[in-house]
C-alpha cells in the first residue's frame, strides 16, 4: 500500500523538527559545557588563592576570634579579586570560610559556587548551570629565627631595613608560631629568644615604635657565622618533643663575612674572653681591626684582649664554650684551620696573611654551620641587599650572593655547595630599598607554603 505523498512530507517535517531539537540540544550542551569548564577553572583558581590568603591572614590578631575574622576577610578579598562578578555572566557565591584551630595547626576550608545561565540547553528545560569548588589549607606550626645584619655598611638603609623586618614579622601568627629575633655585626646579639615550650612570640616587643628592631644600631663588621650559630642553637635548644614540624632560619645580609668569633691564643694567655675578630677589604695591608666583645654588636676589647696580642688562629670554633673547655676535643664541631673548602692556616705572620685567613675562615664557618642546620632538617632562607653582593671580594674573589645561595641550598647554588638531599630554601636579592619589603614578602610566602 503506498503512503500518500503529503503524509510522507509531513513525517519528514516531524523527523527534521525532532532532529533539529536534538542537534540544538547537542550544540547547547557543547557550548554550555565549555562555558562551564571555564567557569569551573576560574572558580578553582579563586578558591585556591582565597585559601592561601586566609592562611596568611590568620596570622593577624591577638586572639583566635581576631585571627579567624582576619582569615575570612583575606579569603573574601582574594576571592573577589580573582573571580570578578558576572564572569561569563555567572554569579559567584563564597560560602562561609571555616577556620579550625587545633594546638599548633590551623585548618582552613574554603568553598564556593557559581551559577551561569545556559544558552541553547534551555530548549531542554535547563535554566542555569551550577559549578562548585573547594580547597583546604592546613597551616602547621612554625619555629623560626630571623637573623638581621646590622653592620655599618647598612647605615644608609636603616629605615628600609627596619620597616621590612617589621612587615615580615607581621605575616606570622603571634599565638601559633614561635619566632626568635637576633642581629649581628662584629658579633651577635639575641634580641628576643625563641620560646622553648609555649607557642607564640612577643611580636609587639619586636615591631612597636622604639621596640627591638627600632633599637638596632648599624655599625661594625660582618660576622655572619655568629648570626648563623646562634640562630641554629636557638632552634636546637627546643627539646625534640616540643619542636614544630617546620623549622626555619631567615638570614638577611648585605655583604660578605669578614669576621668570626672564638677564643684566640694570645700573648701570655692573659685574655680569657672569647671575641669576634674582624677585618675589612680596605685593610688588606693593615693589622687586624679588633677583637670585639661577645654578644655585643660593636664593642672592641682592649688591654690583654686587644687584637694586637693575638698570636694565632685557633684550630676550632669554640666561642660558645667555657674558657677551660675551649680545647675539649669532644666539643669540637666546626674546624677553622682547614684545607677545605678554603685553605685557612693558623698563621697571622703578616697583615696580608691575617686578612686572608680571617676572610676565608669567616666564609667557611657560616657555610659549615648552615650545612649542619640543614642536615638537622632546618630550612634556610636568605635575603641579600645591595650592589656589594654582586662584587667579587676577599682573597678568592668570591661573590657575596653566591655565599647566600649556598647557605639556602638553592637550586641555582654553586655545584660545590649544592646538596639536593637537604632542605632547599630560597634566596632573594634586593637591589635597592624599595626591593627589600617585596623580597621579605616573597620569603614569607614561601615559608607559609611549605608549612601547609
Automatic annotation (TrEMBL):
InterPro entries reported in the protein's UniProt record: Tad_N, VWF_A, vWFA_dom_sf
Domain VWFA: 143-257
Organism: Janthinobacterium violaceinigrum
Name recorded for this polypeptide: VWA domain-containing protein
Positions of transmembrane segments: 12-39
Keyword annotations: Membrane, Transmembrane, Transmembrane helix
Pfam families associated with the record: Tad, VWA_2
Domain of life of the organism encoding this protein: Bacteria
Gene3D superfamilies the UniProt entry points to: von Willebrand factor, type A domain
Amino acid at each position: 500500500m503506498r503512503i500518500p505523498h503529503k503524509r510522507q512530507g509531513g513525517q519528514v517535517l516531524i523527523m527534521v523538527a525532532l532532529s533539529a531539537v536534538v542537534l540544538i540540544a547537542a550544540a547547547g550542551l557543547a557550548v554550555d559545557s565549555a562555558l562551564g569548564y571555564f567557569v569551573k577553572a576560574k572558580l578553582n583558581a579563586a578558591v585556591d588563592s582565597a585559601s592561601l590568603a586566609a592562611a596568611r591572614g590568620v596570622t593577624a590578631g591577638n586572639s583566635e576570634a581576631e585571627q579567624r575574622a582576619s582569615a575570612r576577610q583575606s579569603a573574601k578579598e582574594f576571592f573577589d579579586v580573582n573571580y570578578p562578578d558576572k564572569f561569563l555572566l555567572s554569579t559567584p557565591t563564597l560560602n562561609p570560610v571555616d577556620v579550625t584551630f587545633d594546638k599548633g595547626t590551623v585548618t582552613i576550608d574554603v568553598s564556593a559556587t557559581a551559577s551561569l545561565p545556559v544558552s541553547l540547553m534551555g530548549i531542554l528545560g535547563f535554566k542555569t548551570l551550577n559549578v562548585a569548588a573547594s580547597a583546604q589549607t592546613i597551616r602547621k606550626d612554625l619555629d623560626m629565627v630571623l637573623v638581621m645584619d646590622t653592620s655599618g655598611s647598612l647605615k644608609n638603609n636603616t629605615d628600609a631595613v627596619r620597616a621590612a623586618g617589621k612587615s615580615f614579622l607581621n605575616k606570622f601568627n603571634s599565638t601559633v608560631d614561635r619566632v626568635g629575633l637576633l642581629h649581628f655585626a662584629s658579633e651577635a646579639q639575641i634580641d628576643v629568644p625563641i620560646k622553648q615550650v609555649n607557642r607564640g612570640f612577643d611580636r609587639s616587643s619586636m615591631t612597636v615604635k622604639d621596640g627591638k628592631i627600632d633599637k638596632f644600631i648599624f655599625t661594625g663588621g660582618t660576622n655572619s657565622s655568629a648570626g648563623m650559630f646562634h640562630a641554629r642553637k636557638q632552634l636546637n635548644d627546643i627539646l625534640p618533643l616540643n619542636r614544630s614540624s617546620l623549622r626555619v632560619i631567615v638570614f638577611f645580609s648585605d655583604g660578605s663575612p669578614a669576621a668570626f668569633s672564638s677564643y684566640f691564643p694570645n700573648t701570655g694567655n692573659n685574655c680569657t674572653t672569647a671575641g669576634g675578630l674582624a677585618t675589612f677589604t680596605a685593610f688588606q695591608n693593615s693589622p687586624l681591626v679588633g677583637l670585639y666583645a661577645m654578644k655585643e654588636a660593636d664593642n672592641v676589647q682592649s688591654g690583654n684582649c686587644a687584637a694586637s696580642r693575638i698570636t694565632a688562629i685557633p684550630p676550632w670554633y669554640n666561642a660558645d664554650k667555657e674558657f677551660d673547655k675551649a680545647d675539649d676535643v669532644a666539643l669540637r664541631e666546626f674546624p677553622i684551620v682547614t684545607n677545605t673548602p678554603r685553605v685557612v692556616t693558623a698563621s697571622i705572620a703578616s697583615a696580608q696573611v691575617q686578612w686572608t685567613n680571617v676572610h676565608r675562615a669567616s666564609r667557611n664557618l657560616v657555610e659549615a654551620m648552615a650545612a649542619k642546620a640543614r642536615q638537622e632538617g632546618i630550612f634556610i632562607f636568605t635575603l641579600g641587599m645591595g650592589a656589594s653582593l654582586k662584587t667579587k671580594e676577599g682573597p678568592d674573589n668570591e661573590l657575596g650572593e653566591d655565599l647566600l645561595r649556598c647557605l639556602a641550598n638553592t637550586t641555582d647554588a654553586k655545584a660545590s655547595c649544592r646538596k639536593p638531599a637537604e632542605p632547599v630554601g630560597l634566596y632573594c636579592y634586593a637591589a635597592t630599598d624599595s626591593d627589600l619589603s617585596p623580597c621579605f614578602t616573597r620569603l614569607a610566602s614561601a615559608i607559609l607554603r611549605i608549612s601547609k
